[in-house]
Design a protein that fits this description.
about 190 residues; alpha/beta; Rossmann fold; two-stranded parallel sheet; 7 helices; 8 strands; globular
Amino acid sequence: MELASFPCAFTAAEGMIQRVRLGAERVLITGASGGVGSAAVQLAKRRGAHVTAVTSPAKADDLKALGADAALNRDDALPEIAFDVVLDLVGGPRWPALLEALAVRGRYVTSGAIAGPIVELDLRTLYLKDLTLIGSTRQAPKVFTDLVGYIERGEIRPVLAESYKLRELRAALEAFLEKAHMGKIGIEVAG
């Protein structure tokens, strides 16, 4: 079940990381406790990045165990000019603060908008800081091949919060909506 959880979340995270060309830099990851976010924490760390995860206080220690160097509460003010890269899975009304958190020539990549798809952009922030904005949904075939190699070498591990039988689908959906889990929720389909 653990391996079955990696194709969607890990390919999205690795695709973002490859598109933004993340190296040993300072990275901020929003939505860090979800499937894509927890994958991004591990994938960024394996590249030598200093990882700051945005999460709830209850999940901060779990994210640090996955490799995050620091954690910020979802409601905390973001430090300005503190990150080279932002991997954003959230969007929403705090989006302008994410751009302010980027250093000059910082790079922003998104693959989600769970807090809202419509954001406000002050073009002066974009051009005065020489920022690069990237959307990421379509992954090169290399992404999947790279991920399989990372897993085979033990460099990353899929995070399975819990698994449910198909007949327990309602309970699985309720657990998902509570957002108390970290990683993916799996559904077992009898074969």
